[in-house]
Amino acid sequence: MSLRLQLLAAFAYVLLLIIVALEVPLALNLARRIDAEVKNEAAGQAFVVAASASGRMKQPKRLAQVLRKAGSDLGGRVIVIDAPQGRLLADSTVGVTRQLPYATAARPGHPPASLIPPNRQ
Question: What ranges in 1-121 are assigned the alpha helix state H?
């Protein structure tokens, strides 16, 4: 193997190491940014739906209509939970929701995209 070929191989090896060393942190940072952006977008959409539902908390049929529209617009399931009691007030996947306990032992916390009534500060 000639000296020129050995130098070329060494240069290619060092270049590959530098590229990998720079690419790994970049990929990790990009994954974190995407995750944060998705969470922020979900929180923003939850606030919009909560504002739309705030005047309809005592009207289950109107609340269900708002949630069905929000669920179809967002492409997912939207729920409203009575935060102090942990009861499910409305669900976008069913017509009129029975007020079932949502905060159970199997589900100790509320999901991140759940909506908390605006009167709870």
Answer: 3-53, 60-74
Q: Which of 91, 102, 93 is nearest to 63 (CA)?
A: 91
Q: Where are the domains of the chain?
A: 3-101
Phi, psi for residue 13 in degrees, rounded to 5 = -65, -45
Is pTM beyond 0.85? Reply is no
- Compute the Cα dihedral for 57, 59, 63, 66 and give only its sign: negative
Tell me which amino acid residue 82 is. D
Distances (CA, A) of 11 to 14, 52, 79, 117: 5, 61, 58, 62
For residue 70, which of 9, 114, 24, 101 has the smallest C-alpha distance?
Answer: 114
Task: Dump pLDDT digits (tens) for 1-15.
Answer: 899 999 999 999 999
C-alpha separations of 80 from 20, 31, 74, 93 in Å: 46, 30, 15, 12
